[in-house]
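ARCHIVE CARD
CATEGORY: sequence design from structure
SOURCE FIELD: tokenized fold
FIELD CONTENT:
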């Protein structure tokens, strides 16, 4: 009997230790913040304003506002889990023909943003960025385009489910943290001890505004079937645009002019004066 009790205690202690270790380690797996910018808008002759603002818990955040035509669409861009907004500069340059203004920002611990990243902090930062964008750069929700990339789709979908906007672009989205962990047996086991959610699907169910999902068919980081699962779940109106041969970080490069025209047509259709605005629940 004593041996059984000792064995049970060892198992319980092992589970507790594993739980603690995973909780300490999970943010390092989900987020890869870098402080240094590889490029700035000035490096590619894009006019940009440095923007500082605070999340609801007081953390100081940083972003760039890149102005476009005064009456054109405004894109609120949510970047992925690696790097910082400096890694989005080439993308911004390539998207210049869209004729849009852009507000992109760094989550806490990324780039010039302060604080330490976590899922809770990430969601606070997303909310703060939307509030600033609407107040300062796009008071008319008919012109507002929410655009997420990879992890950023969690933030973009969160805002789209709760606030007014013209449309939502989801590039290389994943279903949730659990589905991503399931792509690897070791990660799937470790996820049993995690409390990460990062659940794009949870928000997507409540989004009735127009949605364009874009995904590379050869994505090795977030497999294409993640978008396919989200597309099946999403309420209409919706469209899935596979970019043949593209991996995770080169979708806009591989897609080229066809990608640009697809996005431009979607934005023109849904993000203009007088466009229907979908409201959150």
């Amino acid at each position: 009997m004593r041996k059984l009790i000792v064995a049970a205690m060892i198992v319980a202690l092992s589970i507790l230790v594993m739980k603690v270790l995973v909780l300490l380690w999970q943010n390092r797996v989900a987020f890869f913040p870098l402080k240094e910018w590889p490029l700035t808008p000035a490096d590619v002759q894009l006019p940009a304003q440095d923007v500082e603002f605070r999340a609801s818990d007081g953390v100081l955040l940083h972003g760039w506002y890149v102005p476009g035509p005064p009456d054109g669409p405004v894109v609120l861009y949510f970047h992925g889990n690696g790097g910082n907004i400096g890694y989005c500069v080439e993308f911004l340059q390539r998207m210049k023909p869209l004729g849009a203004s852009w507000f992109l920002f760094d989550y806490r611990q990324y780039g010039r943003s302060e604080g330490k990243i976590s899922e809770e902090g990430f969601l606070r930062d997303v909310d703060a960025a939307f509030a600033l964008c609407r107040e300062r750069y796009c008071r008319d929700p008919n012109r507002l385009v929410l655009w997420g990339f990879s992890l950023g789709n969690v933030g973009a979908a969160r805002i789209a489910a709760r606030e007014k906007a013209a449309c939502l672009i989801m590039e290389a989205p994943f279903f949730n943290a659990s589905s991503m962990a399931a792509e690897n047996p070791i990660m799937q086991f470790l996820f049993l001890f995690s409390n990460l959610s990062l659940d794009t699907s949870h928000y997507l169910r409540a989004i009735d505004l127009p949605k364009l999902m874009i995904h590379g068919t050869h994505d090795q980081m977030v497999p294409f079937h993640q978008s396919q699962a989200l597309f099946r779940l999403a309420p209409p109106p919706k469209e899935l645009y596979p970019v043949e041969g593209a991996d995770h970080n080169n979708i806009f490069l591989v897609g080229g002019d066809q990608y640009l025209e697809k996005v431009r047509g979607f934005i023109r259709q849904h993000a203009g004066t007088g466009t229907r605005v979908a409201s959150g629940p």
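CARD ANNOTATION: The first helix runs from residue 2 to 30. Residues 11-23, 273-281 have pLDDT under 50 and may be disordered.
SHELF: design records, drawer C
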